[in-house]
Design goal:
Layout lengths: L1 E3 L2 E3 L7 E5 L2 E2 L2 E2 L1 H11 L5 E6 H5 L2 H4 L5 E7 L9 H13 L5 E7 L2 H14 L4 E4 L1 E4 L2 E6 L4 E6 L5 E5 L16 E4 L29 E5 L6 H15 L2 E4 L1 H5 L20 E5 L5 H7 L4 E6 L6 H4 L2 E4 L2 H11 L1
Parallel strand pairs: 3-6, 3-8, 6-7, 7-14, 8-13, 9-13, 15-16, 15-17, 17-18, 18-19
Antiparallel strand pairs: 1-2, 4-5, 10-11, 11-12
The structure holds flavin-adenine dinucleotide.
Flavin-adenine dinucleotide binds next to helix 7, helix 8 and helix 10.
Length: 330
Amino acid sequence: MLSVGKRLFSTSGRILDTLVFVESANSKISPASLSSLNAAFQLGKPVSALVAGPEGESIVSELSQVEGLSKIIVAKGDNYNHYLAEELSPLVKAILSNESNNFTHFVTAASAVGKSLLPRVGALLDVQPISDVIKVESENTFVRPIYAGNALSTVKSSDKFILTSIRASAFPPQQITSSSAPIEEFSESITTNGRTEFVSENLITSERPELGAATKVVAGGRGLKNKETFDKLLEPLATKLNAAVGASRAAVDNGFCDNSLQIGQTGKIIAPELYIAIGISGAIQHLAGMKDSKTIVAINKDPESPIFNIADIGLVADLNDAVPELTEKL
Ligand SMILES: Cc1cc2nc3c(=O)[nH]c(=O)nc-3n(C[C@H](O)[C@H](O)[C@H](O)COP(=O)(O)OP(=O)(O)OC[C@H]3O[C@@H](n4cnc5c(N)ncnc54)[C@H](O)[C@@H]3O)c2cc1C
């Protein structure tokens, strides 16, 4: 590795630059994308951002204030609306494979969009992507959880392109300052198979903080017995704390709440400042989604429940008594 001025070169003489795919959420940079930018800067190379479609255009001015960005590439076009991975992946491939761009690294959040996009880009470039990164060791070495978070694997890539998705809860959001990155329009026409079209989406709207980004989460499990108790006990407590509401898979499967609230191996992975588990046993698949929370509080009537093994504060009590009392005292 050679360093000339501020540019980093590989031993083959290629300049090492990083491209980050940045998503919008309600016309703001999504919290997960701010974390992706932070992870990208940890690679120690110049970082550029890619935004696409009308959603992407809505965040260009905010993005231009991210300190240290080399440039923002804007790919206009209604075909990028709703971030269809089938449309985005040929775009990312075209930008990465254009040698004049000097990109060697690609970073996206391990969001629903990123999880769909990354393997497709990998297939198009014939490169093995590295998903769900929680730590950047060096420009080609990354740490990622395996076996539902029970082991950490350190992986090193020798591929021509290094394609990664990052777990947002493992990286702080990149700060917005007032610097101004140059904006470049991507105008090359890209051919896609055109066989995928957006039909509709049903979004659950809530006044509460978004589960993936909330600093406090109140989560309920099967112990709440039904939807009525779930809403009656959890909602007032979450309101008092200005917390997001989450759930175990058992609670979701039993119809206590929407499946977008599921936390765990097959749900959302979160790491809030405060996590309150109510009537949740602490199955390994649930822990995979919340064990990195800073302070874990558990309310469960069974003192042998495994959730108490990782709880910082445990209350052995009937949730029907303890939760209303806690809410009232708060
Ligand atoms: C491939 C796979 C993926 C999975 N992915 C996920 C995932 O992403 N997320 C997830 O959560 N699970 C996941 N699961 C399911 C997981 O194994 C558990 O079944 C689930 O987490 C259990 O949910 P629970 O803790 O709410 O229910 P239970 O395990 O039934 O626990 C209920 C708890 O409530 C307590 N309780 C009952 N009544 C009261 C009361 N009145 N007061 C106080 N406490 C009370 C009980 O003591 C018990 O500990 C997955 C499973 C598989 C096989």
